[in-house]
Sequence to fold (702 residues):
Amino acid sequence: MNITFKDRVKLAGAIIRKGIDGIPFFNSSSFSISDSSSKDFKRTEKGDKQAYINNFTSWVYSAVSCIARHTAKVDIKLYKQTSEKKGKESWEEIFEHPFLDLLKNPNPWMDMYYIKYLTEVYLGILGNAYWYLPKNKLGQPGQIIPLLAQKVIPYTKNQIEIDHYEYIVGNNIVKFSPDEVLHFKEPNPNSLIMGLSPLDALLLSVDTNRAMMEYSMSLFEQGAFFGTIVKVPKDISEQDYIRLKQEIKEQFTGVGKAGRTKIIHGDIQVDSLVKTMAELDFEAGRRLTKKDILEGYGVPEFKLGEGASTASTSRANAYELDRMFIEETIQPRLIRRDSVLNKFLLPVWDDKLVCESENISATDKEFLLQQETARIQTGYWSINEVRALNGEPPAPWGYRPWVGLNMVQMAGFVSEEAKKENQGIHKKKRQMRENWQQVKEQKWKSWVRKEENTEKKYIADLKKFFSEQEKIVLSNLRRIFDTGKSKEIKELVDFVFPNLDQQAEKLSQISKGHIREAIVNGVMTAVEFQEENNKNIKEEPSPDDLARVGFTPASFDAYVNQIIKVWKDLYGFTINQTIQDELRELLNQAITGGWSISQTQSEIELLYSGYTSGISPEKSLRIARTEISRIMNDSEHMCYKNLGYKEKTWASEEADEALCEDCEAMDEEVVGIDELFSCGVSAPPLHPNCRCNILAGDWSEE
Fold:
């Protein structure tokens, strides 16, 4: 049976007016469905939801889509309350959870960016947005499906609580319970149930802008036929009349022929009935409506490319406009989105879970520069503390603050006298050249003892990390095979392997303590090397020990934090990417070879066994040994630079079972303290599992 437009209007009216299971929120007078078949201009009726959607054009589209783009690209992070001591809450970021899986794959047809974008569009036009949350077998949300907000009708019990939602799907009505729908809304002083549409406050400007656009288009399309009357003499011949009519039509009708001038003979008169756009000052009118609409949505013109040259004349102006847009327009919407998820969705899993959008606050670079300068000039920061914050390596002379009007450096940095003393110790060691092998072996044994102690603890944590990762991979694999779509997915590893950035973050958190311990090992090795008897001193450097190698406690902590940050961005990512690539190759073989789920699982378990099986799994051992060795050598190298040494010597030890021909060939090579060795590195390791080290100064036989 075909249902006409009028029938649909009656059906919608019946749905709105009925009160069988509750009180309809809308009155029939405030809700209607637009019939856009008429070509006459019609003002938008307040409360007409479809008409509001039809206004998603021109400046409304520009403003709403700008907001939607900025909010949709902001990721949502998940946290869990771990403890509460002395009234202070402690939160831990969660990287693996069904909620995060839901955001990663909300439904088979859409991604989360699209859903977040569409949600903000509906909020910007109608003031309301809805997510339908179908439940899985565990009774938890299994999908996120955005509903067309103009098709949703909420029913309330008492003007405070929702009784149910009705959704118009074609000629049918689907009824949803409140726990099946997540409702986002703009604050509304007239209702506790429905959000207020921003267009309610902007309808006059929106309709004015639309009227000017339709008027302009009408002139373009219809030209002289509707805007001009041509009077001809009564005695004009039929042939001349037809010729004049045809000439006007051919030469003056249409967009490309507007504005032409016609010169005529005789008594013909031309009267214009339509004012031009210039006469109506449409350009100024549209500027005013644009300003009104953009200000109503809180979107500055430069965000749309308008006035960009003016904003860019001053960096401070551009920054301030961007900051205001983020803080006054975007962040409140992100807070609203987070609040709805925290209040109505996350408690389904755990009431201690909280989600929060990433911080996107604009950074005032000029203010930060002034802050850095002031803190340096007052001695609050040292040069290297500033360099560490900016991601730059420390300078040998930058560990002590500078004070005074003439910026004199404070006492405590390794002085020239101390450098001469250090060099004197080195000369004494040069005189003991006949004990070279003994010195080298003794230093290597001390170095290896520290390295192996840290290495064992690091391997234990790496085994746990890769075991957890293996469980996630196998779980995701079984889930995909259960759907029967494993062969349809081009890159199966993207759906099986956890988020790469999150895994890098997690690995860096696990590695943080071991990295610091490795740095301490390198520093203590440098301190011990300054002692003539070359004996171990202690496991943790004292402030005096740090001062001997050019550090303060504060600058040492800054150096450690910088090394950890660089490690995460480079090595934490690379290690996970390596195993992801290994897994990609394996899964591609599984698909092309038609492997069963059990065979694929066995191969994945075999792959991860190199990281998890035994006391010292081969691959975890290689990661731990290589990284600890590299960090220890880098830290020791930094200390020697601070101490003023001019050269460094490569030391390979025959007692090392990992010694290879390449490393043996490097033994006793001497280069400048800032130069690369002939093998292309500034300090060992030369290769994975390498345990070579360096000696400060020139220990060659020459």
The first helix runs from residue 5 to 17. Residues 134 and 645 are 68 Å apart (CA to CA). Residues 56-148+176-218+279-362 form one domain.
